[in-house]
Amino acid sequence: MADLTIDREAMGQLSKALAFICGADHPTTLALKAASDGGSKQDIAKARKLFLALKSTDRQAAMAMLNN
User: Fold this and answer.
1) Confidence (pTM)
2) How do residues 15-38 score in pLDDT, each as one tens digit?
3) How many folded domains does the chain comprise?
4) Is residue 17 domain-resident?
């Protein structure tokens, strides 16, 4: 998972999934939304770092929601 590449569209979808899983005001949800809304390289790096820092169950649940 450490070498995971997520494009902007996927970040937007992940932010919606995490809003359901963790809440709309969760820092990772907000970072992914900012990165998907035309964020800078720093926004994207922050969102990726926060996503990878989530509990594995939350990451897996969000990824599973993308596949459905």
Assistant:
1) 0.85
2) 999 999 999 999 999 999 999 998
3) 1
4) yes
Q: What is the pLDDT of residue 5?
A: 64
Q: Which uninterrupted H or E stretch holds 59? A: helix 56-67
Asked if residue 2 belongs to a domain, the reply is: no
The dihedral sign for the CA sequence 43, 44, 46, 50: positive
- Closest Cα partner for 43 from 27, 32, 29, 59? 32
Closest CA to 35 of 6, 3, 1: 6
Smallest CA-to-CA distance from 28 within 10, 46, 40, 13 is with 46
Which of the four pLDDT bands, split at 50, 70 and 90, describes residue 3?
Answer: low
d(CA 22, CA 41): 24
